[in-house]
Amino acid sequence: MTEARESAGPHVRRVPGTPCWVSLMVRGLEATEEFYGELFGWEFRPGPQQLGPYVRALLDGQEVAGMGQLPPDRRLPVAWTPYLAADDVDQTADTVRLCGGTVAVGPLDAAEAGRMAIASDPSGAVFGIWQASAYLGTALTGVPGTPVWNELLTFETESVAKFYKSVFGYEEEPVVSAGFDYLTLHLGGRPVAGLHGVGHGLPRDRGPHWQTYFEVADVDETLRHVGDLGGSVLRAAHDSPHGRVARVVDPEGAEFSLVENPH
What we know:
By secondary structure, the chain is of the alpha+beta class. The protein has 2 domains: 2-132, 2,3-Dihydroxybiphenyl 1,2-Dioxygenase, domain 1 (Roll); 147-260, 2,3-Dihydroxybiphenyl 1,2-Dioxygenase, domain 1 (Roll), CATH 3.10.180.10. Helix content is 17%, strand content 42%. It contains 4 helices and 16 strands. It has helices at residues 29-40, 89-98, 157-168, 219-228, and strands at residues 19-26, 43-46, 54-59, 62-69, 80-85, 102-110, 114-120, 126-132, 147-154, 171-174, 181-187, 190-197, 209-215, 232-240, 243-249, 255-260. The chain has an 8-stranded mixed β-sheet, covered by helices on one side. It is globular and about 45 Å long. The model is unreliable at 2-11 (pLDDT under 50).
């Protein structure tokens, strides 16, 4: 999981297919800023406004994530969405459609920052596509309060892996374990994201969806803060090969995971 950190530095243009940004669209932007500001120590700066009111979350003055206000008439799920880098978002959007996916928003320009689209894979999981211009994406990784990994929870990995490989050129590496359906997606020999087939373990009201992991210094302490701030714990802290992890939900219902990396 931690190998997904940017080895070439945050200001280098991302290889197409690399997760480069995470964004959350919510109904109450001000309350959501308060929750994540207290939880991760984020501060907020406005813009760009192409999707309505939108802010960038900063940690130590560097952008790490984005949040926007959902239009009142849009009944979209409140969920963290990863953006995957592209050299040409229009061409990538065409490939998404050709491979059985859907493009729901865009492609459109986000001021001088870049060009974007929001799409879904054939199973319905939503992701963004980002063609960088002035803004390359998350500028800080590898410290508490930053996104460290993105993982698709889906029915089964084989068919959806073909979609992502066709669109972004990933190589795949299965995790060989009886009864465990998991693939790691690689670019240039480096793991960048995971696909986890959970069959009927998917929530009925959610369907397949991407999940973002945020690094924290102490998972157990962070879980206490989540509860104090109005969120709740979906899966209690437990040890994994990648460190101590837990899954939580914010006050608006957006799921995300926490990981405390072993040192």
